Amino acid sequence: MHRAAYCHRLFQAAVTGSVLLVTTAVAREQAAGAGSGALKVALIDEATGRPVPARVELLDAAGNAYIADDAMRVGTPSILVDRESLGAWRATRGEVLAVMSQKVVNNYTRTEQFYSGGRFQLPLPAGKYKLRVFKGLEYRIASREIEIRADESLELKLPLVRWINLQEQGWYSSDAHIHVARPVEQINPEISRWMQAEDIHVANILQWGNSHHFNNTWQYAHGRESIYHEGDYWLATGQENPRSHILGHTLTFGARAPIHFPDNYLVYRQYWDEARRQNAVTGWAHFADFGGQVGVPIDLLDGLVDFIEVLQFDRADYSVWYDALNLGARVAPVGGTDYPAGPYLPGRERFYTRVEGKLDYGAWLDGLRHGRTFVTNGPLLEFTVAGHAMGDEVRLDKPTTVRIEARVRFDPARDDVRQLEFIADGEVVRRFEREGSAAEIACRWDYLAAETGWLAVRVAGKKLAEPNSPYEPKHLYYQEQSPALAHSAAIYITVAGTPPQAAKPRAKIVAKAWIDRLEALEKRLADDQLEKLARWPSPRLDGVDAATLRNNRPALLERIQSAKRGLLAIAELRQ
Questions:
Q1: CA–CA separation, 519 vs 500, rounded Å?
Q2: Residue 114 phi, psi dihedral angles, 5° rounding
Q3: pLDDT in tens, 500-513
Q4: Which of 126, 237, 461, 534 could form a disulfide with 546 if both were Cys (CB 3.0 to 4.6 A apart)?
Q5: pLDDT tens per residue, range 251-291
Q6: CATH of the domain at 467
């Protein structure tokens, strides 16, 4: 199945709730009758003693799920919520909440769950239940076996316990890719508490578009007016636009105003330039896939791209990112879910950014701009070279031995990580194995930095206590069991008197491969191929009609020629 069509099917399934067949407990009438009791729960952060938002699963002995009457309302009424279709309900917060849901499907646990703001209650039939509570990656899953007795009310304080606190070290979690309509400002508190329940400190809420329009998952504001925070939890409007099946999907964070050039939609350079003018941060979504393997070669060498989304859809793909680094670009990795375009909840894949001083949205953008990130769906990384952290540059007067320190920590109840890999210029140089049942892999060694290059660490393992991945097992891109993944940003080594990154043999190989991709695109842009290249199946997707292709072709061909000249210079550069 074509990848775009496959993801579109997941997109639709996520919206309709039909990704999985889940046994749902409607049994309210049972609880209202004879032999019923009640449950009242306070979810308490052990460190602060205060109630905190979290995600809750409550199952009876038969596996039926129960949803609290006072559960938070979350979600978006449709993945395609545009300004024109909002209608009367856009007028009030109440009308927006009315089309949101109090239950969510967790396709990894195969259960229905709900979000609580910190306290919840509900009537229940007498019997035994299992209660589990989730709050992001840094908290342990809280679990209790409880029994409800007839005509009695059980009150429970459930402590949520951290196994790690990266905020204390200046690292804050983010989901790069969330599509939730925010048509009115008054809905921000509900969305913020939802993100707090998943412990997402910076939630990038994306309006998205295509060559036809830029109204999907409509946001009430962009720029400063779109920013909302409660303590160290921030919401901000971003955009996934431009996006096309020809050149790929892009992300922009921190723009002061929407960026859209419908008449020159396939000239992505216009978007990058305007984003820089607005002091925004930009990059490629979906592993730079969905056409991005052609789009990245066109624009990368202009130095206007800050990041590539390398972790998403229950998998990692570092290939285009490694190629970009090997050409000498300094590009950060980010991760995000593309919620709700698949069978998962916000924050399943995420990235951490190191922030200097107090967290605010501007400081977070600055950390991302400087490449101080790592991506993860569970394991948490530390990595330094000669005392320099992720995103930094180590400058050496001559080839020198430098001290490498790396560590991955994880919750062994959720992630099985067996080894940590040390990467130099995209190649695995060393592997460090987990010892016994330890909840971390830590290593320290001396490394000869003989030439200019880049270094990173990564881990891979498997997720525990989950059924097989909800992604179609036979599909090429996904595996049956969900992986546990993490990858650091690069630390750059510059050794005086050695060739720059772009002059190394690996850069030449990448440059030649990218030239081939661009020449293939040139052939697809020929007159007799335009109708075939054009694709406009639905306003929901990323097709580009033939008229837009024809109008944009001269400028796009000019951009391709410019990119080829830059890549050819690298391919022919002598070491």
A1: 26
A2: -145, 165
A3: 999 999 999 999 99
A4: 534
A5: 999 999 999 999 999 999 999 999 999 999 999 999 999 89
A6: 2.60.40.10
Whether 85 shows a pLDDT value over 70: the answer reads: no
| 336 in Cβ contact with 453 (< 8 Å) | no
Is 0.85 topped by the overall pTM? yes
Per-residue confidence (pLDDT) for residue 196, from 0 to 100: 98
- Which SS3 state, helix, strand or coil, does residue 372 take? coil
3-class DSSP state of 40:
strand
Q: How far is CA 259 from CA 271, 430, 508, in A?
A: 7, 44, 34
What are 543's two structure tokens?
């097709």
Q: How far apart are CA 343 and CA 240, in angstroms?
A: 20
Q: Which domain holds residue 441?
A: 378-498
CA distance 495 to 452: 5
Kindly provide the residue ranges of all beta strands, DSSP E only, lying in 241-306, ordered along the sequence. 243-244, 248-253, 281-284
Please give the distance of CA 293 from its chain centroid, rounded to a whole number: 19
Estimate the crossing angle of helix 505-524 against helix 319-326, to 10 degrees: 120
Look at strands 233-240 and 202-208 and give their pairing. Answer: parallel
Residue 28, pLDDT above cutoff 60 = no
Please indicate, yes or no, if residue 108 is contained in any of the structural domains.
yes
- Let me know: does 191 contact 182? Beta carbons within 8 Å: yes
486 and 518 both lie in a single domain: no
